UniProtKB/TrEMBL annotation:
Record's signal peptide: 1-21
Protein name: Putative tnf receptor-associated factor
Stored Gene3D superfamilies: Apoptosis, Tumor Necrosis Factor Receptor Associated Protein 2, Chain A, Zinc/RING finger domain, C3HC4 (zinc finger)
Swiss-Prot/TrEMBL keywords: Receptor, Signal
PANTHER family the UniProt entry points to: TNF RECEPTOR ASSOCIATED FACTOR, TNF RECEPTOR-ASSOCIATED FACTOR 4
Keyword Transferase attached: no
InterPro entries, per database record: TRAF-like (IPR008974), TRAF1-6_MATH_dom (IPR049342), Znf_RING/FYVE/PHD (IPR013083)
Source species of the chain: Ixodes ricinus (Common tick)
KW Signal (keyword) present: yes
Amino acid sequence: MYKISLIIPLTLLLVFNVTSGTPGEDGCWSCLERTLNMICQKEGGTSVHTVDFANCKVNCWKPFFGTPSLQQMTLPPGTRCGFPYKVSCWNAINGCAFSGSCMDVLQHFEQDCGFHSTSCPNCDALVLRDNIIEHLKSTCTARVIQVVEAATSTSTSGSDQRAYLEMKQLLEKIRDDHLYLQTSFNRLSEQANIVSARQHESYETGVTRVVDLILEVRTGLKTDLEARIVSCKTDVSSEVSKLNGSLSIATEKVSRYVRLSSAPREQIWVLEDWRNMTDGALRGTPAVTESPLRSVRGYSVSQVVKMAVDASHVLRFTSYIRFHSGPIDDELEWPFRGVLNFRVVHPKDNMKTVTRREDISRWSPEEYFGRPGHGPNSPYLLYDKTAESLENAGFIVNDKLCLSILS
C-alpha cells in the first residue's frame, strides 16, 4: 500500500489511497500527472506537487526522485493503471457517501455535493451550509443575551461590576455622540432653511423678470405682426389685380388656340354585345346604344347606333352623330361646319374598312349642328347598312364592331 499527498492552489488537499493488486499492477504515474495538472489548471493556478513515496514498492520513479516536477514515466508491459480505483468524497466526514474515480469525485465535489460545511460566525462551530440559518436561529450557543440590570444585585462579582461600568461608560459615550449628531443635524437644517428661503426669493425675482420680458416681446411681436398683415393685404391685392389681367389674356389666348386648333383626331368606339342587339331587334324591339362623349375639335359629340327591322323585314344597322353642350361652347363657331369622316373598321383587313366622308356646311340644319340648348341635338345619320352584310364581310369579331370618327 502507498500514499500520495499533493498540494494545489486554493489550499485543496487531495489524498489518494490506492491499493495495488498483484505485483506489477502498480499506479500509472503518467495518468496521475495528467490528472493533477488538469485539476490545477481548472483551479486557475500552476502545478505544485509534493509526493511522498516513502512506502511505494515501485522502483521506476527512483531515477527521477528529486526533480522539480513530476515527469512522465512508462510502465513495463502488462501493467495496469491504478487511477480507475474508487476514492471517497472529501466531505465524507460530513456525511457524504459518494465514491468514484478521481475526476468523478472532483466534479461531484464542485457541482453536486450537498455536504459542504462552514464555520458559524458566532460560535465557530462547523455547520453544513444548508443548515447555517437554522443553526443561527435555534442551536447557536453564542446568541445575544439581553442585558439585565445586574448593577443593582448585591451578589454581583467584581468582574461583572467592571463590565457594568464599562457598559455604562459606553452608553454615555453613545448618548454624547447622539447629542452631538442631533446638534449638527439641527444646525444643518437651519442652514438648509436659510438657503431655501434665499433660493425661493431669487426664483420669484427671476420669474417676475422673465414674465416682464415675455410681455415686452409679445407687445413688440403683436405690433410688428399687425404692420406686416396690413402690408401683406396690400401686396396680395396688387398681385391679384395683376393675375386677373394675366388670366384674361391667357384665357383669350387659349380660346384662340382652341378655335384655331383643327388637327385631325380619330375617336374610336368599340361597340360590344352585337348578338344581343340583333336578337332584340329581330324580336321587334329596336336596339339603340350611345357612346361616351368625345371631343372633336373642341365640340362635345357622341355616336349613336340603332338596330331595327325595316318595312321590308330586313335587319338594318344605322349610325348617327349627336352634338352635346360642352365646357368651351362660347369659344367655338356655331353652327358646326367642316368635314366628318365616319369609318367602320375591319378587324383583319384594312382594305375592307368602310369610310364615309360628310361635308357639313354652314347652312346645315340647326337641329343637328347648331349650338345645343337645354339638351343634346337630334342625331345626324352618317351610315346605313344591313346587319347581315356586316357579318358576312367579317366586321364582327368576338361579338364586337369597331367604329371611328375623324374630323
